[in-house]
């Protein structure tokens, strides 16, 4: 455990002083003074290229940031995670999503027991079952091939598989369609059920305890829909479970042979590499699912074996800390310029904000500095026409991560060249900006009058000096997707270590759910215990009246 308060360390104090000297320095001047800047601040790893030169940093900044990482015990914590130590201190659990994609099969011990045999057993079971569904060997109750695959989960049991399936849509089997139900809103169920045929539908119920209220409510609704159409005996042929609760799975009507296990050393938001990824394996084929694991493992090995100064997740994490804790910028944006990656920002929101949205340090004390930032994003170029106005001319700085493949899966006309031109232009525009003088010159060339120029020149100016990273892949495929997601997983871990918080619990999601359970009986009958505040109590009564 890192006992020292991070904002009292020598490295932190040096960074505070360094910030005072650097905060007004212009990136465009640093590029002008150093023609090798782009080369100095970039890394090439296999099929991934990171350019982080468009940040408000110099070589001393990075040296001090890495000193902070070392003083926070990062190198020891990395080793501890990979060794299976129980670094999830509040829940007394190991954190081993890295074991799920450990392609070397090197033993990883938890409580003295190698977890790799059980990981490999589940992967083998996933391969056998996903192949059987894809090739029509595991059929529905009436003998038809199962071509509609519906994943019922919430949180990590939904966002990871959903994001990955959409990212790899180009790899789907031609006769497979994937659907996802997560929201407790009945509309989520109704809209999916309206699109599918019970005879050709396989439901995957993802709940470790098989008691999650949202997931089980949705699963029971889907079960009733199936039974109404095909009868009670059809359940075992159309439902499988991703769970550890054999008793409840059997009670539901699912054959325990079709229950896929995962473990308490795998957190929900880190679980798509496990049995939670079953729908991915069915959609794209187990070979492609394995390629995704291999890509993640390549990033794991880079993260574990590479010195901090050349370590991609560490660099991204420490840049985030630089802005969050020294510039006072508590937000950042991830923009994939690839339609298939449009749900990556939504996935990363859970990964980052559920992991590091904490105000208590691992030593039990309240933190005295900012922790997890707000993350938002969307697909370029769509978001250029939504929130980029704020990005370029708003009063708040928003650091950006741009993600772009050099080659599209759909090379149609000039589409991809225009897309690439846009993402490269955005990074340059954010860095360079446009002075009032430059704006005035442009208006003059456009034939505007002196009065118009004097009025419009400030509106047309951009202050620039706004930071961004650019992450380039040759092409988005299962391997590169695995690299990308593992990169962000490790980035979030690094920041949690430096902030001295536990990135692997999520107690913050519990309170609202607990209170919902107390409100539910009041909505379902006419009595009211009136234990709520005046606002909540009156809203309960209003909803009850409107529902009558």
For the termini, the CA-CA separation is: 56 Å
Query: What is the strand arrangement across the widest sheet?
Result: 1-2-13-12-10-11
Percent range of helical residues: 40-55%
Q: Tell me the radius of gyration.
A: 26 Å
Structural class designation: alpha/beta
Oligomer: single chain
Number of helices: 23
Uncertain regions spanning at least 5 consecutive residues: none
Instruction: Report the β-strand fraction as a percent range.
Output: 5-15%
Shape: globular
Q: Main sheet?
A: 6 strands, mixed
Mean pLDDT, all residues: 96
Give the tally of β-strands.
13
What does this 3D model show about the protein?
The mean pLDDT is 96. 48% of the residues lie in helices and 10% in strands. Strands 1-2-13-12-10-11 form a six-stranded mixed β-sheet, sandwiched between helices. Strands 6-5-7-8-9 form a five-stranded parallel β-sheet, sandwiched between helices. The termini are far apart. It has helices at residues 10-22, 27-33, 37-40, 59-71, 74-82, 97-100, 116-134, 156-167, 186-193, 213-230, 235-238, 246-252, 278-284, 286-305, 312-326, 344-356, 388-393, 415-432, 436-445, 450-456, 478-499, 510-524, 534-547; strands at residues 42-45, 48-51, 109-110, 113-114, 148-152, 177-181, 201-206, 239-242, 259-260, 331-336, 374-377, 400-405, 468-473. It is of the alpha/beta class. It has 23 helices and 13 strands. The longest helix has 22 residues, at 478-499. Helix 16 links the parallel strand 10 and strand 11.
């Amino acid at each position: 455990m890192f006992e020292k308060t991070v904002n009292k360390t020598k490295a932190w104090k040096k960074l505070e002083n360094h910030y005072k000297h650097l905060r007004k320095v212009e990136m465009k001047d640093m590029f002008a003074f150093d023609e090798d800047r782009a080369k100095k601040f970039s890394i090439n790893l296999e099929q991934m290229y990171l350019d982080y030169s468009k940040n408000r940093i110099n070589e001393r900044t990075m040296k001090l940031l890495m000193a902070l990482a070392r003083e926070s015990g990062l190198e020891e914590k990395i080793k501890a995670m990979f060794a299976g130590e129980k670094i999830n201190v509040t829940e007394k659990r190991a954190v081993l999503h890295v074991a799920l994609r450990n392609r070397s099969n090197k033993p990883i011990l938890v409580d003295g027991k190698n977890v790799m045999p059980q990981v490999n057993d589940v992967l083998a079971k996933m391969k056998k079952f996903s192949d059987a569904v894809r090739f029509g060997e595991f059929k529905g109750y009436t003998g038809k091939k199962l071509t509609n695959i519906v994943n019922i989960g919430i949180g990590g049991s939904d966002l990871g598989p959903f994001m990955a399936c959409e990212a790899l849509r180009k790899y789907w089997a031609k006769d497979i369609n994937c659907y996802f139900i997560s929201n407790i809103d009945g509309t989520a169920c109704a809209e999916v059920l309206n699109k599918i045929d019970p005879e050709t539908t396989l439901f995957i119920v993802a709940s470790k305890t098989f008691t999650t209220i949202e997931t089980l409510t949705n699963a029971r609704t889907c079960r009733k829909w199936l039974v109404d159409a095909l009868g009670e005996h059809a359940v075992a042929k159309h439902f499988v479970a991703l769970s550890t609760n054999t008793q409840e799975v059997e009670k539901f009507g699912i054959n325990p042979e079709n229950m896929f296990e995962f473990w308490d050393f795998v957190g929900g938001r880190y679980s798509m590499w496990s049995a939670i990824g079953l729908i991915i394996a069915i959609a794209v084929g187990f070979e492609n699912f394995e390629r995704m694991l291999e890509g993640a493992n390549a990033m794991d090995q880079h993260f574990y074996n590479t010195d901090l100064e050349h370590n991609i997740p560490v660099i991204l994490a420490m840049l985030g800390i630089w802005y969050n804790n020294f510039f006072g910028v508590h937000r950042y944006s991830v923009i994939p310029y690839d339609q298939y990656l449009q749900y990556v920002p939504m996935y990363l929101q859970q990964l980052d904000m559920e992991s590091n949205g904490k105000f208590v340090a691992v030593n039990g004390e309240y933190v005295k500095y900012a922790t997890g930032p707000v993350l938002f994003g969307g697909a370029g170029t769509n978001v250029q026409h939504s929130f980029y106005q704020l990005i370029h001319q708003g009063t708040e700085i928003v650091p950006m991560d741009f993600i772009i493949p050099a080659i599209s899966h759909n090379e149609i006309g000039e589409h991809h060249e225009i897309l690439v031109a846009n993402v490269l232009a955005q990074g340059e525009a954010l860095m360079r900006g446009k002075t009032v003088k430059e704006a005035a010159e442009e208006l003059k060339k456009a034939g505007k009058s002196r009065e118009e120029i004097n009025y419009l020149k400030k509106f047309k100016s951009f202050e620039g000096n706004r930071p961004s990273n650019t992450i380039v892949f040759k092409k988005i495929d299962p391997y590169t997707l695995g690299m990308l997601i593992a990169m962000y997983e490790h980035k979030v871990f690094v920041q949690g270590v430096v902030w001295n918080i536990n990135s692997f619990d999520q107690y913050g999601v519990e309170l609202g759910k607990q209170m919902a359970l107390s409100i539910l009986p009041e909505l379902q009958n006419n009595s009211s215990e009136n234990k709520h505040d005046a606002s909540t109590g009156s809203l309960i009564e209003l909803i009850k009246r409107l529902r009558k």
